[in-house]
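Worked example

This section walks through a single chain of length 496. The input is the sequence exactly as stored; nothing has been trimmed or padded.
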Amino acid sequence: MRSRDEDGVMSADPIIATPGHRAQPSTGESAAAGPGSTEPPILVALREVLPADRILTDPGVTAAYVHDEAEWAEYGQPAAVVRARSTAEVAATVTACAGLGVPVVARGAGTGLSGGANAVAGCVLLSLEAMREIVEIDAGERLAVVQPGVVNDELRAAVAEHGLWYPPDPASAPWSTIGGNVATNAGGLCCVKYGVTRDYVLALEVVTASGEVLRLGRRTAKGVSGYDLAGLVVGSEGTLAVVTEVTVRLRPARTAPTRTVVGFFDTLAAVGEAVAGVTERGLQPAIFELIDRHCLRAVEEWKRMDLSTDAAALLLAQTDLPDPAGADEADAILAEFVRAGARDAIASTDEAEAQALFDARRLAYPALEQRGDAVLTEDVCLPRGKLAAMLARIEAIGTEHNVLIANIAHAGDGNLHPLMITPHGDADARRRAQAAFEEIVDAAIDFGGTVTGEHGVGLLKRRGMERELGPSVVALQRAVKAAWDPHGILNPGKFV
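Given that input, the structure is written out below as C-alpha cells.
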C-alpha cells in the first residue's frame, strides 16, 4: 500500500487493518491533560474550542473508530476522535485542524467497504454519529431535513408516518447513516427503478476545508442556478467537505400490492441470460437481485430460514405496479426466467415469503462474516448485457486463484458484489484473494464497466479508478479537489 507521504501528510508506520464484525463505538470520554503533561498542538487547540467530552484519545476507545469494514485496508492511529454534536462543533474542529495542517477524516457508522473512512496517521477522526436529529419533515413539499448521523432505516420509518417514502436502501440500511450514504452515493435494492442517493439530495449544509459553513443546492423541485455543487459533494467520500445537514426529496408511499418472482438456476451463466432477457423486454422491476448458493447457505446456517440452497443461484424480482399492469409485468418476468432455463420459477403475492427472501439478501454479507472467515468485497458495475460474461469471468478468476468467490448482486442494474472468502491468518490465501480482487476490477473495465457502483473508491479502488478514467480525467478530478481543499487535509490518500 502507498505511504501517506505521497499525499503530503506526516507519516507513521501504518497499522494494517483486520476488521471483524461491525464496530460498536463507545461513548467513553478521554481525560484532559494533567499538570505538566505535553500534548500535541492539535489536542491543545481542540480543547480550547470544544467541550472536553467531545474529544476521545484513549486508544481503548478510539480503536472502535479507526477503520470501516473493508478487509485488509490500511489505517493509521488518529491523534484524537472528535464526536461532534453540532455544525458549530464540526466547524470548530475543522478550523483548528486547518490552522495546524492536521488531516480530518469524517466518519459515520463505519459500515463502508472500501476503507474510505479509515484513519490516517495523526489525523483527527471526526465522528458524526451523534448528530442524529431529523430536523424537519415537510409532507407538502415532500422533503426531509436530517443531520448526517441519522440512520437510513430511521429516516424511512419517520417519513412513512407521513405517507412518504425515502427510496435509497443499501443492505446496510439498519446501521448505515445518511451522511455515509451521501459520501458514497449509496444505492440499494430499490435503486434499479428508483435511483441512488444523488437522485434524492436537494441540498446540503457543509463545512469546507477552511472551516466555513456553506449551504449548497436548494429546496425547490427544480433549479439550475450555478454548478451543481451539492451533486458534486455526493459521492466525494469526505474529500471535498464535511456534510453536516442533508435535505432529501421524498416520494409518496407505495400502496399497490407487490408481486415477487423467484427463479432458481443451475448456472450463473443462465442467471445472466435471464437478466438480459428482462432488460431487453423493457421490464422494470422495483427490485431485481441475485443471491448465489454460497450466500444462501451462509444465511441458512446462521438464521435457519428454511431456504433452498441447492441451486447455483436465485434471482429475486419484485414488481410494484398496480394491477393489471403489475400482474402482467410479473408474468413477463417469470416467462424470461423460464426461457433462460430456470429449473424452478414462481410468481407469488405472499408478503411473508417475499420478506424472508429479501431478508436473506440483506443478511448475505453479515452471514458470511459470521462463519469467521475474512470477506473481501468487490463492487463492480457492468452494462447489463455483459452480466453473463462477467459472472463467467468471475468464476474463472476464482478457479485460477483457488479462491472461493460468493456472489450477490443488484442484478437489474449490473452491480455485482463478488465476495472473496479466505481463512483469517492465511497469508497465501490473502495474497490470492487480493490478486483475484484486482483481476475482477480489470475485467469490469475491460467489459466497459466501472470499478465501483456504490461502495466508493476509498483505499481499495484507486488503481482501478485511475485505469478506468485515464490520466486526463484524473487530473481534472485532482484539480477539483485542490480547489475545494488546497492544503489537502480532508480525507487525504482516498479517492483521488
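What to look for: The longest helix spans residues 351-370.
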